[in-house]
Amino acid sequence: MTDWHAGLYVVATPIGNMGDLTPRAAETLRQAVVVAAEDTRTSGALVRGTGSVARLVSLTEHNVEERIPQILPVAREGVVALVSDAGTPAIADPGARLVAAAHREGIHVFAIAGPSALAAALSVSGFDGPDAHFLGFLPRQRGERTELLNRARAAASILVFFESPNRLGRTLGELAELHGDPETVVCRELTKLHEEVARGRASELAGRFAATRGECVVVVEVPPREGAAESMRELLGAMKRAGARRAAAAAEVAKLTGCRREEAYDAWDSV
Q1: What is the domain-level CATH number for residue 40?
Q2: What range does the domain containing 103 cover?
Q3: What is d(CA 179, CA 164) in angstroms, rounded to the nearest whole number?
Q4: CB atoms within 10 A of CB 33
Q5: Structural domain includes residue 74
Q6: Given 43, 60, 96, 242, which is the most exposed site by the fewest CB atoms within 10 A?
Q7: Inter-axis angle of helices 228-241 and 246-257, to 10 degrees?
Q8: Are 126 and 161 within one domain?
């Protein structure tokens, strides 16, 4: 990249291994006038390590609304970089509000692609599904977690979420108890020295990760609902007789039964 334009640059940073910082990301940080970071202590070492002399500004859940009017005028005139503590910004962190505000104000937004814990976990899970649903960090209250997971299961074939190591064993136990003991992958400390990727039933992994440390991403393959195939065909048949279009019917039936949209779409000709 040789021509630098004023705007907000969303810069992906390593999720563990510093070797994953791309040359383009490093150059963006060197060009930046301001770097907005969730934790300036964590990101400061990385930014200074690139040779950047940019001013570091904290952007947290508690100060984001105050910071936006301070940061956007700088982005109108020069390069502002947005980084997260690790990975791609604006995914489960307050940076999304800064990006949205930049769009509203007509400020150019540029993606400096790179590491993402979400993409990395999906890539090593081995689950094949077109409709992964990212849940961010799960609620702390059991009832809220159960409600969220139940809603998500009805809409996707794969669920991905972040979880605290202190709650991981408990959450996996709940998946086993309340959600059909699904095939699950736990990705712990991705790209770091003690990286661990474990796949098995949620009940098996609950004991293994009852006491653990480090950043954790969980990927869950949603099991088909009992009787879902029969319900899918019945609903498809009824909608077909009513004159519904194939794609719309498949999407609606998938939502109602928990089956995959592609499965419903393929079954259309045989109902």
Answers
A1: 3.40.1010.10
A2: 7-115
A3: 20
A4: 16
A5: yes
A6: 242
A7: 150
A8: yes
